[in-house]
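To the team - zinc ion complex, inputs and output below.
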Amino acid sequence: MKSKMQAAFVEAFGKPLVLKEVDIPTPGTGQVLVKTEACGVCHTDLHAANGDWPLKPTLPFIPGHEGIGIVTAIGTGVTAVKEGDRVGVPWLYSACGHCEYCLAAHEPVCREAQFGGYTKNGGFADYILADPNYVAHIPAHLAARDAAPLICAGITSYKGIKETQARPGEWVVISGVGGLGHLGIQYAKAMGLHVCAVDIDDGKLAHAKRLGADVMVNAKDEDPIAAVKKATGGGAHGVLITAPSLGAFKQGVGMTRKHGTCVLVGLPPGEFPTPLFDVVANCITIKGSFVGNRRDMAEALAFAADGKVKADIELQPLSAINDVFHRLAHGDVPSRVVLEFTSH
Ligand code: NAD
Ligand code: ZN
Ligand code: ZN
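Output:
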């Protein structure tokens, strides 16, 4: 086996990533080494590289938490996976397994959770070290490139829709039809929901329609709260905000039906004002949702294995990462870019 690999590093926040040749890591006790086949580029990677959030990653680091590949080496004591398995190395890289949150399957909020491509090096590299207890197990007939967006964008939008508790036949709004949202529309339709898609880009909305959304609203052209209320007869039972834009959050609360739930998953830095009277008097729930647990992961992947959900992907090489980030920041990525790694 060769000893060097290519990886893209964030060396300074807000600066272009630096491609470097570094040593391939060796799996220690309880770790596995994954040879990357594909890795999706999530808007979170952009937040990470810009140092957008209060808890910043330690520099330098390798982003990427939608990495899919083959286990090529295992450390001592590993029994959960074996060499040759196809796995994903997700945002929830590891957790303690013992705390009150882990015991309740709320492992993404474990105090000791590690995050792929953030507190641990991620998938913008030829090889990734992973914790075998937390890798995603990729169904046999799902290609790596198709599986990549599902292990973050897929699980997050699927879990977020579940968290709205909207029931079949009810309405959900998917606000933001990018990486997360284009999958969210498909999950929601597969779950028997009526879907109203909201974005600020007509191209994204045309795509939402092709994916089965029942109503499309351009938040730039019309009052999105009034439009959603009209289309849904008083507001959506569930609202999922994926847009990395603060304005979309306040609008999302306004689109929520009485006794409905507005789930926040987009993570733009900052805060948004909450109209207290409306939230209280209409008994609205505002809820955060952070990726999902391992069971959610298996379910999210199963929808794709059953042919009910398919990510729309644009393939790029790792060397294009800075251009991809630039386009993502400007809303110029149609759905999801997946970095493809060629065998060498
Ligand atoms: P993306 O860039 O692919 O998609 C964002 C979409 O939002 C685009 O289609 C854009 O046109 C649209 N948009 C922008 N402003 C809008 C507005 N005002 N109203 C409606 N739509 C608007 O991003 P992504 O990869 O889908 O990620 C979205 C956000 O979700 C990011 O902030 C990311 O960090 C976050 N995220 C959160 C979790 C979690 O666990 N909570 C997981 C993954 C990603
Ligand atoms: Zn992500
Ligand atoms: Zn824990």
